[in-house]
């Protein structure tokens, strides 16, 4: 292993408050951009296409593996591929694989090995064992094929990820090479999504929780208020007689309907304030129908909840609610911005 220098303990080190300024960051981001441009300009698209096709055509499972930071990237790419639902995909820890976990590999499976150097001892030990199990081996390395990249020689396919350098002060820490690996893996997966024509419903079926799942799964009918929760009134009702209905349902509005519950318009607490300011005592003689908005934005119960939020926020000015109506303009609910936020959207 060689000899490592003995470092002073933190307790003995002199106190000095480190600082990072914008002028320190700017050249690093510029360097990172140059390194990424180097990667994009020199990536062999035929190799990338062959890699994507191998994943698409995999008859069995697709495993990803790597050591250190490359292993973390491998795990992330595996999880993203698994989330599409097209193939069984997972991460295979190289050391654990050599101690029994390689039993998960069957003939026809694909094993993708990520390594900046292409010379990781753990991966070089794993490759022939995986091949003996009948796996198809693909290496993703930043070392070009040849004597400096023994992993590429051990695999059926090598994809070279061109690396100009790391932006770490020593040029050693994998702070650019891992970004390249992540960008490459995620871009290929996006291409697979398009090739397989992944639908929103298919994607949603694998994301039932969290922001993604709620955005893709929740419909207006899942979060709207209905029946006794609706703030309803008739257009002939006096405004002052409907104050309790206006304030008690927590919607900040009244839905003005006819006898068959067809939507006529809406009357908001903002409309109340404006009417009171403009009319003064005359407000006691005004009906809701005289002052309501007869052309409100509406939405259907089967629309996606995220669509309701977009509609609320659209020009010319945002609103806090949408009446929910059916094809005959009959009110069946109301969806509020507060309700959407409370649902996690």
Automatic annotation (TrEMBL):
Residues 224-283, 292-345 form the CBS domain. It holds the Pfam family SIS. The keyword Transmembrane helix does not apply. The record marks 69, 122, 166, 207 as: Catalytically relevant. InterPro entries: CBS_dom, CBS_dom_sf, KdsD/KpsF-type, SIS_dom, SIS_dom_sf, SIS_Kpsf. Gene3D superfamilies: CBS-domain, Glucose-6-phosphate isomerase like protein, domain 1. Residues 51-198 form the SIS domain. Keywords: CBS domain, Repeat. Belongs to the SIS family. GutQ/KpsF subfamily. This is Arabinose 5-phosphate isomerase. It comes from Urochloa decumbens. The lineage of its organism: Eukaryota, Viridiplantae, Streptophyta, Embryophyta, Tracheophyta.
């Amino acid at each position: 292993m060689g000899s490592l220098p003995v470092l002073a303990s933190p307790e003995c080190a002199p106190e000095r408050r480190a600082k990072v300024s914008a002028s320190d960051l700017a050249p690093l981001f510029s360097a990172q951009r140059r390194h990424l441009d180097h990667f994009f300009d020199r990536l062999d698209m035929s190799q990338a296409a062959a890699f994507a096709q191998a994943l698409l055509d995999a008859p069995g499972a697709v495993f990803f593996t790597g050591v250190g930071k490359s292993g973390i990237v491998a795990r992330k790419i595996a999880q993203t591929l698994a989330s599409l639902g097209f193939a069984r995909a997972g991460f295979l820890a190289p050391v654990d694989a050599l101690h029994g976990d390689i039993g998960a590999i069957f003939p026809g499976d694909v094993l993708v090995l990520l390594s900046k150097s292409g010379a990781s001892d753990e991966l070089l030990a794993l490759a022939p064992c995986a091949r003996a199990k009948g796996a198809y081996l693909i290496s993703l390395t930043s070392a070009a094929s040849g004597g400096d990249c023994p992993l590429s020689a051990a695999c059926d396919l090598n994809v070279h990820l061109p690396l100009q350098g790391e932006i770490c002060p020593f040029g050693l820490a994998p702070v650019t090479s891992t970004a390249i690996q992540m960008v490459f893996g995620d871009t290929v997966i996006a291409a697979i999504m398009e090739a397989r024509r992944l639908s929103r419903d298919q994607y949603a079926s694998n994301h039932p929780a969290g922001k993604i799942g709620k955005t893709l799964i929740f419909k207006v009918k899942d979060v709207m208020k209905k029946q006794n929760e609706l703030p309803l009134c008739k257009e002939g009702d006096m405004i002052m007689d409907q104050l309790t209905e206006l304030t008690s349902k927590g919607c900040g509005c009244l839905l003005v309907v006819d006898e068959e519950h067809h939507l006529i318009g809406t009357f908001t607490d903002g409309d109340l304030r404006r009417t009171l300011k403009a009319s003064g005592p005359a407000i006691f003689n005004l009906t809701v129908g005289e002052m309501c908005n007869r052309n409100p934005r509406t939405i259907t119960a089967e629309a996606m909840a995220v669509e309701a939020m977009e509609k609320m926020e659209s020009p010319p000015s945002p609103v806090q609610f949408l009446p929910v109506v059916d094809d005959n303009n009959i009110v069946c609910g109301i969806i509020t911005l507060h309700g959407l936020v409370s649902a996690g959207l």
